Amino acid sequence: MKLTPEQITEIDRALGKIGIAYLDIRCELTDHVATQLEAEGGDFETELARYIKENKKSLRRTNRKMFFATSAGAYAEVFKTLARPGFLILFIAFFGLMQLLLQFMAAENVGRIGFFIFCIVSSYLSFRFLIRTFYTRRSYSGAVGFSIFSLAILYITLYAGGWLAATGDIAVSLYYALINTVTLAMIATSEKQYKLYKSRYV
Known about the structure:
Radius of gyration: 22 Å
Largest sheet: none
Helix content: over 70%
Distance between the termini: 25 Å
């Protein structure tokens, strides 16, 4: 049987109910389920309920595998972004700014400025993700790990900031230039992926 757009939407809704939360993964699994149901024929409602019941564990397992695969792919894209000349220039600019500030301020105070910049940039990254998740209802699996990574950096910096300032001026400049450049690269990658997924799945 050939499924209608309304039936495809019903499959998507059924997958959402069993915990397939991210739009990109749900679309891929919707295609898979639709293909299976078209091959089997019979009453759509009955076949969909049966398929979901029989394959719930398998679908959730596939969801987890696809989530980790897309997250790994997202980080690979971040490294590609960082390799672009513009981000090398950005890193050098951050490093130069930190070194300049160190001429006038103590390393601990310069570290606070670098940390403040990081908080602003990472907050923007998380805010954009939350807006897309709760307002537009379009959350994509690859962007989730970026917010987690930012939280990890935040935690490390809160506990290692004093030690870092004591290690020397170069270490302070390198660290804050690196974390801010990486966070901006995650934002650029997230925006790129969002546009890609939006064009593909919406």
